[in-house]
Design goal:
single chain, alpha/beta, OB fold (Dihydrolipoamide Acetyltransferase, E2P), Rossmann fold, 5-stranded mixed beta barrel, 5-stranded parallel beta sheet, about 50% helix, flat
């Protein structure tokens, strides 16, 4: 069998693929990676098991600069999205095998309608899950404060839209106060960046002083950078946030899921500023209407109350006389009842004292007899515990340094011990200790 070089073997593979697969193919796959370099687009395609989400097929794909320059703007203009990891796509490809770089699929066309259908399906799945969780309309249930002047802003610090928003509020006659919580507003980091900003707002010291609302704005940027606003995690965080959230992320094509779950959706950052200014103007108009109403109502009410006081003052003297008569009679009745109650209580206590005086001598005698008997019993017990009785029966007590010796282990050879008997005391010296024989 002839031995081939690696180049020869790879050339044989290339020729076989070019001969056997000389057509273009439409393929559906998910992008696990997508990047541009020097005008070319490099993709990593993957197919996953629908049950376990485990990859069952992988391949590399490339779209050369000449083709990518036409396909990219068409795809982004149609879908409003930029190709990114996690997106499902339908590509027209043909196979290419290079002796040095291996196998890859070369992309010649993209079907944006397939991606739009998948995006719509995924968006509907997110909306359904939010509704099943009962959080889809939570923001709509919040009430925007009448004096909505303290604003937490989530935006890119360098975005032109943020500057327009702040300047428009500053030019208004109202004392708006804004605080920026910077976030990435385009690309793959949108979701996590906005969620982190919401967490910073919730944990900030100013939150305890109550921001009135949160504004999420995005000025400028390509419409293809809006995929980060259509994610389940971001929608759940926004829907369950305890303050009203206003979105103005600058696109007209479709509502994002973020727009759907927010309290109020406007198109642009300047529209968000105008919404807040209009809300403040409505509040001011309500105050002015209340002032006008009060100016009309108060004089009429004062006159009515003055006439009412006049009428009441005419009725006060006879009413007071009747009130005084009734209460004086009531006080007399209460005094009579109190006197009778005190007399009955005094009689009962006198009787109780008489009874106690009669019982006191017999109780004293009984108590003395009881304590006398108890003392006799204690005396007998004390005599029975007298150690001299034990000595008179032939027992002895051995002491070491004034303490009772209970065990040989307490004494050492050479110690002087004292033995007390009934009729005297003996002193001895310890010569040795003898072990107990078992």
């Amino acid at each position: 069998m002839k031995t081939l070089t690696l180049y020869e073997l790879n050339s044989l593979v290339r020729q076989t693929i070019e001969y056997a697969m000389d057509s273009e193919y439409w393929v559906e796959a998910e992008l696990s990676e997508c990047r541009e370099s020097r005008g070319h687009c490099y993709m990593e395609l993957v197919q996953k098991d629908p049950m376990s989400n485990t990859p069952v097929a992988r391949a590399q794909a490339k779209c050369w600069h000449s083709q990518w320059a036409m396909l990219q703007p068409y795809f982004e203009r149609t879908t409003g999205q930029r190709l990114h990891a996690g997106m499902k796509v339908r590509l027209k490809v043909y196979p290419q095998f290079h002796e040095a770089y291996g196998f890859s699929w070369i992309v010649t066309d993209l079907d944006p309608t397939f991606t739009m259908g998948d995006m719509a399906r995924r968006r509907q799945e997110i909306i359904s899950q939010l509704k099943n969780e009962g959080v889809f309309d939570l923001q709509k249930e919040l009430e925007l404060p009448l004096f909505c002047l303290n604003i937490a802003v989530i935006s890119s610090a360098t975005a032109a839209g943020y500057g327009d928003f702040v300047n428009q509020l500053a030019d208004s006659p109202f004392a708006f106060r804004t605080q920026l919580f910077p976030a990435t507003m385009q690309g793959e980091q949108v979701e996590q960046s906005i969620i982190a900003a919401l967490e910073r707002i919730f944990e900030s010291e100013e939150f305890s002083l109550h921001f009135d609302c949160v504004v999420i704005i995005r000025g400028g940027g390509a419409t293809a950078d809006l995929s980060g606003f259509d994610t389940l995690a971001l929608a759940e965080n926004v829907a369950q946030f305890p303050l009203p959230i206003i979105t103005g992320i600058g696109h007209d094509r479709d509502e994002s899921v973020l727009d759907m779950v927010s309290h109020t959706r406007v198109k642009t950052p300047t529209a968000a500023a105008q919404f807040l200014i209009s809300h403040a103007e409505q509040t001011l108009q309500r105050i002015e209407d209340c002032e006008t109403h009060l100016a009309r109502y108060v004089p009429k009410r004062l006159e009515a109350e003055r006439l009412r006081l006049v009428r009441l003052s005419e009725h006060i003297p006879p009413l007071f006389s009747l009130f005084r008569t009734r209460h004086e009679a009531r006080l007399d009745q209460m005094q009579q009842r109190l006197t009778a109650l005190v007399q009955r209580k005094t009689d009962r206590e006198h009787q109780r004292l008489d009874n106690m005086v009669e019982r006191l001598p017999s109780l004293a005698i009984h108590t003395l007899d009881t304590h006398r008997h108890r003392l006799q019993l204690l005396e007998q017990r004390a005599k029975s515990l007298d150690p001299t009785l034990l000595l008179s029966r032939g027992y002895s007590i051995t002491l070491l340094n004034g303490h009772v010796l209970r065990s040989p282990e307490q004494a050492q050879p050479g110690d002087t011990i004292e033995t007390r008997l009934e009729k005297g005391v003996l002193q001895s010296k310890v010569l040795e200790k003898v072990k107990n024989k078992k």
